[in-house]
What we know:
The protein is an alpha/beta fold.
Amino acid sequence: MLNIDDIQIFLMTHNRADLIQETIISLLNQSVNLKEIIVLDNESSDNTEEIVKSYYDKGVKYIKTFGFLGNFYKAKEISDKKYVMLFHDDDILHPDYLKNALEILNKEKNIAAIYSRYTEFFNDDSPKDFPQIEKHYHLFKNQKDFAVFMFFCEVISYATAIYKTTLFKKIDLEYEKFNKFNDWPFLVKFAQYDNVALLEDRNAIYVRRHSGQDTWTYTNIPSYEQIINWDKFFLRYLFPKRR
């Protein structure tokens, strides 16, 4: 029987001192008691470290990382529990998210990853009250079905993903191949090894949209080649006989 100590929680951040406190609180307010939250900070130049360290007595730890994708690779390096979750520094987690995820892990066999749909909110208009979330989820038992679903239903959160650690250490983001759209192929790859569970209630996580967010900037637009790579990745599942 798995318990919350079998899921290692990493909070990934970079220069989000104005947002990260609300995110930390949403983790600390989980209905299952988190004994440890590891904040991975990729060379922030604001007062992120000071804010994080103010929660040391709550089991929050701080590790500074360096280099491109430093947070991701540090999580790969030091993760040592059965499952791992990479949370984002600008999102808000429903209090029962981890409780529901644990119930799935203990009910189903051979879970490679758990994902969730999400609700968007903008800037500082964060949710004040959390409705009770439905526990209904869908279990994808083959990669093709999940890839097709992912292609036609974009609203799946990378931030709440819980991965089997052995697979997380094995699968790479391939940023150079797909640029900032690398998260879609990354999520799909887990389904080639085992079952993928998708929590369908969009209130499980609230994703913040704000100015300066990477998905809203034009500083790292995918090249034509990277866009074609992304299309090819999904088309082979949509039209398998044409490969």
